[in-house]
Amino acid sequence: MFVSIANSPGLTYPDSRDGFSPSERFPEYRFDHVASRPNPVYPLVRQVLAQAGLDAENFGAPAWNPLGRFVAPGSRVFVLCNFVYHRRRQESDSDFAAKCIHGSVLRALCDYLLLAVGPGGTVHFGNSPLQSCDWNRVLSETGAASVVEFYARRGAPVAARDLRLFVSERNVLGRVTAEGTRDGSEIEVALGPESLLRPVAWRGTQRARFRISDYRPERIASFHSGDRHRYVINREVLDSSVVVSLSKLKTHEKVGMTCGLKGFVGMVGHKDCLAHHRFGNPSAGGDEYPERQAFLRPFSVFQDWVQGRARDASFQGPLQVLDRNLRRALYRLGADMGGAWWGNDTCWRMALDLARIAHFADASGTMCEVPQRRHLSLIDGIVGGEGQGPLSASPVNAGTLVFSDEVAWADRAACKLMGFSPEAIPLVRGAFQPMHFPVAGAKEPVLVRNGQPGRIDDLEPVLGRPFRPPRGWRGRVTGR
Questions:
Q1: Rounded Cα gap, residues 96 and 91, in angstroms
Q2: Residue 240: which of 409, 130, 112, 376 has the closest Cα?
Q3: pLDDT above 60 (res 479)
Q4: Which H or E run includes 44?
Q5: E-state strands within 93-241
Q6: Percent of the chain at pLDDT above 90?
Q7: Least confident of 15-29, 163-177, 378-392
Q8: Distance CA 206, CA 398 (A)
């Protein structure tokens, strides 16, 4: 195992006018197009692969194939991207860059994946963003649409995939104006009592009430209740022989930080199979908000009632608007709602459930004893996100890429680069407990940073100071 980190202070993303082609012709580059404007991202991706010693004997020659160690010719590769939501009205370009991965990183990664899969393989990319995300907009705004266009003109087997099987549209007030269900490429994976949610699914003889904001409570209960725990995964991911997590280096209100492990949430087809929190405060058996904010219970009850009503019920539209704007107002007043705090003991468990599924579920959804596909991780931290991530992160120019052949170790390194303690982030801490995620192992991987060897736990914050954590995690994540 290895973790490779490349830093280039002051690095900026190129624009999409040249399809994110390299601005110099590297020996292994196979296409006819070279950018007329500087593209500093492409050589940084190349560096983060090269310094890991991948196919070292061919580096500098046309035969260099750094990902060939992991990706066999003819493979079906899926790049699981962080496309969380399209650009909102109040967001600047830099704010948006802190939220979603950038097309320049995707393009360079796909070029090297194409070298590995050869003419008989495919490279698809995408994820399952929020239900009301405009897919075409997020492709355009991240630059991913330019990547698709570049490859389409050259007949390369690269395509974008929206993995959602249910989508909706909302107006600016928050009212649902349209909904649609897509026919299905869905695979159901039943973890049952083996789910990491099982230890928090009961309070005595009472079943926990799992929730995800803006979804019907009874639908969530049909997936997660007591010893029953099921997930709906898009077939596109489970049919792949290699999955590459292309995530963003940023904070997350519900799990502290989000990189490769949390990114597995993007492979679900129906988001109402995701348990984000449990109804109520801890004394009521929940982790929706802290004990001191018990005054939020009436608002939570109201949200449950609104979400549980039929879509065509009387006054349902105005009630949706009222519910959404009440929550917005409370959030702005400092309330830690929807599991957005350090005491959330649900969301990280759900994310690790999905990480286990991605590794151990076969194409039919059956959990196996041995991994069923290869996983790689590339973290885009050229512009990272701090503060109220994942949707409202503030941009930080971190100039960093992290690449690894093991997702959990990449996340641990990212945690240190953000100035957070891995032991203070349950998602990262849990990934190193064999009973939770029997992949990472105890042996520390080889680390190289800008060509120099080191140890992951000795990494210093890439900004020279910790990332600013989400409001509900302040005072809980920094330190060794």
A1: 6
A2: 376
A3: no
A4: helix 41-50
A5: 122-127, 158-162, 166-170, 176-181, 186-190, 202-203, 206-207, 210-211, 224-225, 228-234
A6: 82
A7: 163-177
A8: 46
